[in-house]
Inverse folding.
């Protein structure tokens, strides 16, 4: 078992309230309970020695670990998803046989919040004989809390402060204590199976009734059926069906079903640069990311998910203001709690020494005016706002737009949450324009009371300001903020939101300027930190969201050969099961929190746009 495997060497499983990462070597090294944003149970991804892990690996007699020094590797691993599901299969190929570990989390009543979550791990041998080795080493509360172990035959109970974990073995799998942890092993021949079920619940929670093989078979069938039925609602039938389906399932896995709130990523603390300090906690609901994710889900036919988030978002508006004094703040916990106090977990080493490891997010109180555009953009998607929020919901939305008329022309921290001071960011103005534009359309369409004349005047003033102050005659491009010539890939959203047509001369000139400065072999940087200091040390990779937005912009501009080539190249950076992190490093490695919703929603948008434009071109002959 390698400490600190590459970020990309993981698959994601979940039950729509929390999730876990399993490495391609069969090591579950990230899991929080009872929610995505709860303290960790396993966090070896952030500290191999202190974080805790749950490993099931193949261990042939006398064999060294894969790639071990001085010996030929005797275990080869492969990992895949059962098609169109969140069931993950890790395969172990040895000289003696082929074994598999099938990992999944049962999805039983996802819309009801619960403290009880299960991970099912089925061991099976499909050829020859395989010896499996198990290690379960929980480290509660990010590795800060001690626990007690009680072992009784095939059942182990780990008791920590406020939390209990039950480990139950099924079949020919023996468990033994290893200090406060548990080891186990089983040698299975072709056709034989064993299993372990990990149940995590509040302190003192009773262990579930010991499962039997037939019940686990039914659990497996039920979770497979759930995912097949869910993805069956997808309306996309284009050229990239498999990767679009995987992105949709990933977005669904990262949505907290009891409230409908998507999180930005499954993890915290994974760096934008190995050994660097750009390490943040992304296990929260960003208004921006979630609103755009909902747009992608709706375009795939998932109206239920779109409406659930819109209800969540409307409730935030009706709550009457955030602690920072604004109508909304940029992020919340999945239940709408606005308090995300940031702390440094200085006992954790960080992934490959990437320190500090932060829990919570201090950017929550930043002023980022673009969120109002994304929020109204989500609320205004078909499926009428009136149907979702009613008259009272409309009044709260209209009040925010009235507020925006007085507040749009303010410097803020911008979309990238830089900690280098406020600026007049062009993207923030762009999305304020979107908020007012979509609000005007909704007021007209739904015949709702609104000061449409005032909203229209503010909208038009924003457009004129962007066209004058956000445009650089020197660069012949729209720029990051007023008074600079720095480019910013966030402005790739301009044609997507309808601010400018994809073939407008100013837009084509901006796209050409970005291609010369921000694009490297079809991969796109957010901006140049050297030219626009962001208050942080170190560098970062190309930003995968921006690469897919670049594909979208090229496709809509009619540059189809370039768009398709860029898209196909970008897909080669997906990991072995089709997942993307936040960024791509200089040698093609994935960096940042993983998997990231922003990347997958933009992949969907790019695929839909490229399909549409390719079909349109084909119809013209």
């Amino acid at each position: 078992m390698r400490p600190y495997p590459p970020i990309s060497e993981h698959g994601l499983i979940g039950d729509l309230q929390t999730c876990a990462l399993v490495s391609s070597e069969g090591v579950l090294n990230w899991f929080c309970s009872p929610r995505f944003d709860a303290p960790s149970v396993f966090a070896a991804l952030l500290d191999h020695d202190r974080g805790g892990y749950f490993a099931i690996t193949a261990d042939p007699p006398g064999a060294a670990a894969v790639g071990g020094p001085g010996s030929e590797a005797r275990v080869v691993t492969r990992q895949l998803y059962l098609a169109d599901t969140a069931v993950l299969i890790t395969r172990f190929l040895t000289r003696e046989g082929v074994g598999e570990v099938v990992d999944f989390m049962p999805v039983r009543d996802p819309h009801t919040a619960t403290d009880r979550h299960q991970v099912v791990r089925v061991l099976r041998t499909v050829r020859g004989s395989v010896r499996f080795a198990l290690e379960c080493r929980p480290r509660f509360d990010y590795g800060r809390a001690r626990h007690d172990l009680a072992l009784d035959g095939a059942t182990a109970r780990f008791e920590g402060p406020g939390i209990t974990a039950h480990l139950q073995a099924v079949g020919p799998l023996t468990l033994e204590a290893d200090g406060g942890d548990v080891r186990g092993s089983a040698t299975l021949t072709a056709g034989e199976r064993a299993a372990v079920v990990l149940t995590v619940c509040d302190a003192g929670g009773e262990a579930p009734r010991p499962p039997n093989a037939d019940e686990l078979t039914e659990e497996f069938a039920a979770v497979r059926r759930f995912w097949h039925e869910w993805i069956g609602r997808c309306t996309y039938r284009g050229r990239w069906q498999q990767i679009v389906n995987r992105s949709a399932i990933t977005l669904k896995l990262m949505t907290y079903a009891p409230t409908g709130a998507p999180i930005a990523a499954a993890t915290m603390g994974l760096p934008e640069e190995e050994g660097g300090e750009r390490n943040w906690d992304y296990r929260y609901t960003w208004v921006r990311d979630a609103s755009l994710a909902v747009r992608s889900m709706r375009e795939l036919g998932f109206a239920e998910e779109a409406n659930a988030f819109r209800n969540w978002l409307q409730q935030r508006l009706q709550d009457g203001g955030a602690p920072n004094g604004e109508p909304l703040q940029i992020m919340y916990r999945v239940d709408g709690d606005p308090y995300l106090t940031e702390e440094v977990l200085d006992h954790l080493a960080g992934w490959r020494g990437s320190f500090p490891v932060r829990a919570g997010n201090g950017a929550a109180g930043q002023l980022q005016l673009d969120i109002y555009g994304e929020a109204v953009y989500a609320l205004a998607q078909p499926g009428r706002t009136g149907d979702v929020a009613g008259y009272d919901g409309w009044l709260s939305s209209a009040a925010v737009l009235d507020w925006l008329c007085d507040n749009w022309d303010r410097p803020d921290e911008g979309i990238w949450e830089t900690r280098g001071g406020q600026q007049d960011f062009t993207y923030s103005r762009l999305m304020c324009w979107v908020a007012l534009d979509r609000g005007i359309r909704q007021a007209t369409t739904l015949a709702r009371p609104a000061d449409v004349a005032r909203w229209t005047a503010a909208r038009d003033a924003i457009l004129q300001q962007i066209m004058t102050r956000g445009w650089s005659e020197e660069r012949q491009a729209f720029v990051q903020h007023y008074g600079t010539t720095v480019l910013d890939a966030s402005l790739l959203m301009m044609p997507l939101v309808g601010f400018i047509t994809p073939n407008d001369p100013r837009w084509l000139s901006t796209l050409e300027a970005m291609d010369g400065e921000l694009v490297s072999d079809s991969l796109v940087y957010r901006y140049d930190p050297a030219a626009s200091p962001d208050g942080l040390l170190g560098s970062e990779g190309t930003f995968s969201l921006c690469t897919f937005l670049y594909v979208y912009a090229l496709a809509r501009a009619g540059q189809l050969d370039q768009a398709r080539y860029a898209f196909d190249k970008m897909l080669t950076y997906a990991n072995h099961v089709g997942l993307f992190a936040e960024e791509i490093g200089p040698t093609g490695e994935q960096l940042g929190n993983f998997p990231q919703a922003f990347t997958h929603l933009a992949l969907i948008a790019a695929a839909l746009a490229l399909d549409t434009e390719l079909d349109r071109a084909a119809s013209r002959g």
